[in-house]
Amino acid sequence: MLLLAALVILIVNIATFVAFGVDKQRAIAGARRLREADLLGLAIIGGTPAAFLARRHFRHKTRKQPFSTMLAVVALMQAGAIAGAGWSVIEVGLQA
Question: C-alpha distances in angstroms, 49 versus 8, 22, 61, 74, 93?
Fold first, then answer.
């Protein structure tokens, strides 16, 4: 189960990185862009690490507001969820 979850997260992160790259290339070409909501959606479902990495790698959407703020909020919420889940596991272990 843990391996499957890791595989899904890996796939989502690869898709997120590629999506940022595609959007950057479309921006350069003056072509139709990906919606910011789609890019944020990929981050929400687990692609946040790749979103931050892609922004830096492609130099894309680094100063865009409110996109940058929204991505930071997603990251903070995910960090809080991970911390909460970790705390629950520790708490259960201490009660056993």
Answer: 14, 17, 15, 11, 29
Place of tokens 């862009």: 33
* Residues 45 and 9 sit within 8 Å (Cβ to Cβ): no
DSSP letter at 34? P
Mean predicted confidence (pLDDT) in 71-86: 95
**Residue 63 pLDDT:** 86
Length of the chain as a residue count: 96
> What is the distance between the alpha carbons of residues 67 and 60, in angstroms, rounded to a whole number?
11
Residue type, 39: L
